[in-house]
Amino acid sequence: MGNQPARRTAGAGADGRRRAMLSGVSRSAVLETLRAAQSPLSVAEVAARVGLHPNTVRRHLDRLTADGQADRTTESRNRPGRPRQLYTARAGAGDPASDEAAESGYRLLADILAGHLTGISPDPAAAAGRAGRVWGGYLIGKPPPFTRISPEQAAELLTELLGELGFAPAPDPAGGGITLHACPFREVAEHHPDVACGVHLGLMQGALAELGTPASSVRLEPFAAPRTCRARIETDPGAPPDGKDAHQ
């Protein structure tokens, strides 16, 4: 009994680190979108490009504006309706040269670690998948006790997580899956596809397992179309709820 407060404190700290990690990734994606735009963007336009909910994007834009990394203006219009708030990246925001150097360093580190795993493991994809499953369960967050999450709700939560990680997800028009219009692992995947795609698949499997959703099959189709991957989720009501039967 005496250890319960400590466990709650530790859990709260882990939740805070998880939220901070995902928030940082999402905010960076929003800022990069503003930098790449040829004209000011509205909240809805940014949300469509990064694959996040408009309310989430609005919070990130507010933070970027408060931090001096973005500017907000009110749209000039001569037609009926409420003018939109438009956003641009502030000149010099985030020091692109420094950001590029840091990004190159992280890519090099990822390449080194992926190459090492490929060299020492007899099955790099399986090893990467195991690591991805652990992180997927951690990043999605455990639902409250006795909470039943339907397969549809689990797919929505997984889509939200993939958006926060920078995959720009959208429902697959063909149904039964998620189309991923971006990949934060793309450059590593080009050199070490087994490792990068194994981690990605494992992230999805681990997230669904943590949500308690029976997942008989989670399939990843890397580069199913130019610069696009597809994730397909098939649920089986008779599958164990811990998701251990999830497979590629």
Structure description:
The protein has about 250 residues and is an alpha+beta fold. The chain has eight helices and seven strands; from the N terminus they run H-E-H-H-E-E-H-H-H-E-E-H-H-E-E. The protein has helices at about 5-35, 45-50, 55-65, 95-120, 125-140, 150-165, 185-190, 195-210, and strands at about 40, 70-75, 85-90, 170, 175-180, 215-225, 230-235. The strands form two sheets. Strands 4-5-7-6 form a four-stranded antiparallel β-sheet, with helices on one face. A three-stranded antiparallel β-sheet has the order 1-3-2. Strand 6 and strand 7 (about 230-235) form a beta hairpin. Helix 4 packs across helix 5 (about 125-140) and helix 5 runs parallel beside helix 8. The chain is globular. It starts with a helix and ends in a 14-residue tail after the last strand.
- Computed over alpha carbons, the radius of gyration is 20 Å
Distance between the termini: 42 Å
Number of helices: 8
Label the overall shape: globular
Structural class: alpha+beta
Seen as an oligomer or otherwise, the chain set is: single chain
